[in-house]
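Hi there,

I know you've been waiting on this one. I reran it after we fixed the sequence typo, so this is the corrected version. Both the input and the resulting structure follow.
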Amino acid sequence: MSLTFEVLGTPVPKGSARAFVPKGWKRPIVTNDNPKTKPWQESIVSAAHDALAGGGPIEREEPVALLVRFFMPRPKSAPKRVVEPTTIPDLDKLVRTVKDGLKRGGIYRDDSQVTLTLSTKAFAGGASDPAGPTGVPRAIIEVGLRAEVLVALTWPGAGHHARSWAGKTLPLFGGPAG
């Protein structure tokens, strides 16, 4: 099983969780320090539900591979020589938001099933955007069984096919999906 889908919008990092115990309470309340996380994660959940239409989640204990490409808006102040976003948000915090959204979206039981993660962060409409100069901020998410991905990435003598996953070229490594 493998799924590929897009989530439109500016990717938002998970942020740090903060816990506090209100006066008189016995249990802590856990909050997120980034208020923009919830709408972005809801977009991920919705896209995951749509991608699962007609299929079920990955089996309970199956190891999962996650490939994510984030396309960030290019700041107007960025000089042309800057070709990749090297400022905040951190790539690992962007991935955390996606992993939690995929869990809530029913793609897999728990994000601990993810045993392989490949991710990139690029400018929307930049040189590495498959949509070309008209690309918009978004995330392209590919999720599948880890064994399928490892065979595709490491099969000896596979040549250019070593970058295929479920019969498609992995756009994460360059080139169009196909």
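Quick highlight: Residues 37-52 form the longest helix (16 residues).

Best,
R. S.
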